[in-house]
Amino acid sequence: xxxxxxxxxxxxxxxxxxxxxxxxxxxxxxxxxxxxxxxxxxxxxxxxxxxxxxxxxxxxxxxxxxxxxxxxxxxxxxxxxxxxxxxxxxxxxxxxxxxxxxxxxxxxxxxxxxxxxxxxxxxxxxxxxxxxxxxxxxxxxxxxxxxxxxxxxxxxxxxxxxxxxxxxxxxxxxxxxxxxxxxxxxxxxxxxxxxxxxxxxxxxxxxxxxxxxxxxxxxxxxxxxxxxxxxxxxxxxxxxxxxxxxxxxxxxxxxxxxxxxxxxxxxxxxxxxxxxxxxxxxxxxxxxxxxxxxxxxxxxxxxxxx
Length: 306
Description:
This protein is mainly beta.
């Protein structure tokens, strides 16, 4: 099974063209003899070339540069790969399961921390609300889109997220400052669309992705690439994997046996070559010397490696 390149798209940054999936009804039942699906997601080949943005051409370069290369570039870290080629932020889920355990999901909360949306990948339900909270002392412009393979992206909302007024007085409240006023938005995708992406219009390297699901049988891989889906009614299913840096969903057939574990692994092939118009390119007209006198971009939170 192979993944393919990320596509270029709106707002000057690539958004993924995705496979539309048909809506599916789901009935909640009590599962008493469920089985487990567990496995690991890995990726072969060299690490994909990352998107990168020149901080001196974007607002708030000094603050947002606390996560950067140290040479004035901010990288979109969409591929987090472990030493054993494990892949983080893959959503693994059962497709079109008719019935199973109750689908309870807390409201998704996305925080802007050091000009980075956390978490990078979420699972959301259609018609549910998401909460976006600014932890930064700079303003953000929150743009939400839904995507589909045939019709491209469609704007869901575009709202400012005011700077956090509590950031500079953290000492009053303890080591961690208070969050800013939350922005609440309802996610409603048109039929056939199941991927939501959020980006900052001021700081275009800020992304957060959401896969819209209709059942609770999913897992998001941590850095070790592992996943475990429990309480699955016995039967035959289609197990699907999705990563925001890949073009396609990948699938495999699985058979779940009562009160037993089924092993299922996924292996992606890393996309190679240029993935975006936004990459590190030295330009003598747009270097660190453009900063005002006395300003310096220091990656004090994390130094990124190209």
